[in-house]
Amino acid sequence: MSNEKYEFFKVIQEYLNRASKVVQLDPAVELMLSQPKNELIVHFPVRMDSGEVKLFKGYRIQHSNILGPFKGGIRYHESVTLDDVKALASMMTWKSALMRLPYGGAKGGIKFNPRNHSNGELQRITRRFTHALGSNIGPDYDIPAPDVGTTGQMMAWMMDMYMNTVGHTNKQANRGVVTGKPVASGGTLGREKATGQGVVHCILEWAREHRFNLEGSTYIVQGYGNVGSHASTILGRYGASLTAVGDHSGYLRSPEGFNRHKLAEWVKTHGSVAGYPAGQAITREEFFATKCDIFIPAALEGQIGVAEANALDCRMIVEGANGPTTPEGERILLDRGVVIIPDVLANSGGVTVSYYEWVQNKRSESWDLEEVDNKLEIAMKRAYKEVSDFSRARDVDLRMAAYSVGLERLQSAYRERDIFP
Ligand code: NAD
After folding, report:
1. Does domain 38-177 have CATH number 3.40.50.10860?
2. How far apart are CA 103 and CA 198, in angstroms?
3. Hey, which CATH number is domain 194-346, 3.40.50.720, 3.90.370.10, 3.40.50.80, 2.40.40.20?
4. Looking at ligand 1, which atom is closest to the CA of residue 249?
């Protein structure tokens, strides 16, 4: 499926509209949530290793801050568009509300391929972008985090850049300007794997609810980056076997199951699954037709269109990625009885542990991994149950249920505060 024709923001607006009807959202609240509060576009120059100067276009979309500071990742990818970032920013608002986090929603990005740049160039691009964003970000205003193409290292550069612009006496109070940082720079244990861990909590809850035995089950994963590799590594501990995998470089299948740790190591050192010395190369079409119990999309939006929905031979899809299923694809899958655990719930472990990191920064604390993991488990189980209960009680699919639970919370806040002045 081509990403180009996928109008991601329109799709998210339609979901908002459908869910608004389910919860009888005040039309004024729906109107306010239908567009982001602020849309920032910056252009900034960066000197390349060759001495040449290039101009980059960066986005930061701040969708809502009714429940707390704007919050959301930064994406580095050649396909980044204003509309996609608007869609992703809106989803962060629903996600924070669903997870009961004191955050709103935001997203940002730069349209370029980070794979084409040296480490030095990536550092200069990240620092220059942070500088261009200036006071439009801040630990109590708008807090970025990693997303596709960005890493903990880049968050450390962003933090350092920001901290060095606020004045000496304020410096330490600004560590929480970004989350997803490496631990030594003020990150939290458990953040790197948090999104994948949350995906697996959803699978475990679903399996418990439906008396499904994960031992001996099979799963396939699209995208073996942060979300895909951690979800895969953790899910394997429950006896499930990874039988097909793929990313921007191609797809592989292994009926006897991949060694998920070795594959993750390979991707870390080589940048993709290409050349991994196990399994056989398959096409994208063959990947989507691979029979399995669970499919974890963990790459980009718009990947599961009509053709993929018809081809998929699985029981459930757990959306590690944001927006991987198109509405047309979803209709086919739901008609076929395939369960879809939606992005807003499934990948919310990332922002949840980002919140734990931010709280630790504010309090100058560092929590044990066990404490972070326990808190995340409780939060994911609670959200899963709320969504599952809502879906059953109101006879709506899980995506509409997840949106509805989040929207009801946002509506309460608007009702209590009303419009200023
Ligand atoms: P990442 O950069 O670590 O990995 C992205 C993966 O997608 C890579 O394996 C890449 O090869 C693959 N990919 C890119 N283009 C592709 C294409 N055209 N076809 C197939 N595969 C392709 O990014 P990530 O952080 O793992 O994010 C993956 C998804 O999860 C995104 O939708 C992101 O918004 C979502 N997400 C991430 C987090 C987080 O904490 N990192 C949290 C919530 C949601």
Report:
1. yes
2. 18
3. 3.40.50.720
4. 11
